[in-house]
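Reopening this one. Same input as before:
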Amino acid sequence: MKQILNILFLFSVITAAAQPPRAPSISSPDVHADNSITFRFYSKTAQKVSLSGEFLKNPVDLVKDTSGIWSVTVPPVTPDIYPYSFTVDNVQVADPNNTYIFANERFKRSIVEVKVLSTLCNRDTFSRFKRSIVEVKGDKPLVHALQNVPHGKISYRLYKSATLGVTRQLLVYTPLGLDMNGKTKYPVLYLIHGGSDTEETWTKVGRANFIADNLIAEGKAKPMIIVMPYGNVRPNPMPDFTKDMVNDIVPFIEANYPVLTDSKSRAVAGFSVGGGQTLNIGLTNTDKFAYVCSYAPYTATDEFKKNFTDWSPNAELMNKQLKLFTISVGTEDFLYESVKKNITFFEEKKIKVKPYIVSGGHTWMNCKQYLATTLQEIFK
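Same output, byte for byte:
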C-alpha cells in the first residue's frame, strides 16, 4: 500500500509540473474614487497590449510587470457607461476579467452575415464587436442608473413572423403595477437597436428599462410598455422589417398586452440602422405611429431610397397625424453631415421635424440621452 501511495504521489507531482502555470487572479476594470480607472490584462507572451475605449481619444498602451500582468490607469472619466476593448498583438479582444460584455451581433451572426453587416457600418461602428463595458457612477445617480424607485419588468418573448417565416425574439418592458387582466391600458414605444447590435443592447448597454423606471418615478414620463425587437432581418438587415413591425410585431403586442391601439398611443424610435428603420416605418405609416424619433439614422439603404426618392408626401396630412417627429445626432458623429441632409430634406418637404443636435459621437452614451429626451416628450 505504501508503495502504491508513493507512486500516486510521484504521478501527481509529475502531472502538476506538466501543467502550464495558472493565470493569476486579477481585477479589471477598477474604478477609483476620483473616477480614474485601472485596466489589467494577463499575458506572458504578448508583445504589445493597448486599450481602446469611448472615454479615450486615442488608444493607450498597457505596461507589463515581471509576472505578466499588463496594466494602465487612465485619468478621471466623466460618469457614464463606456464600451472598451484590448488590442493584443493586433487582435481585438474583450476584457477576460470583466463579465459585463457589450451585447451585439458577435453572439448571433455567422461569418457570412458579419461580412454583409460590415458593408453597412463603418469601421468604427463595426469594431463594437468584442468589447466590454465599464460603468463610472460618479457622485450623483445618472438617468440610466439603478435607483431606489419602483422597477418595471423585462420579459423575453417569442413571436411568429409571418413576413419572414420564422419565430423571432423581442424584449418587452412593462411598468410596475401592470395588470394583464386589468382595465388600465398603456401606450407602446417600439424601440429599435443599431445595425451591429441586438434586441438586448437597449437594456444591457442602453439601460432603457432603468431610464424608463427613473423618469416614470419622477413623473417625467408616462407609464408605458417598451418593445425592443430584433431589427436585423438576415442576411440583409434592411428589407421587410417594416412589414415585420407593422404586420407581425404590433399585432402580437396588441393581442398579448393591455395596450391602447390608436396611433397617438404608438411611438417608434431607433438608433443608427435602427434610426433609419424608424424613418422607414414611421413616415410610411403615420396613420399608425404618431411619434417618430430617429437617433443618428443610417439611411444609405435600398429601403430608404425606395421610400423617399421622388417622394411627394401630403405634408398637411402628415403634420396632423404626427404628434412629434424628431431627429437626433451628435456633432462628432460620423453620420452628422448625412443626418443634417436628412433634416433639411424633410424640412424642404414641409414635414415638421424637431432636430436635437448635441455634442459627442455615434455612441450609446449619446443614445441614452436621446432616449431620455424622447421618453419625456411622447404620449403627452
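So the earlier flakiness isn't reproducible anymore. For the record, The radius of gyration is 24 Å.
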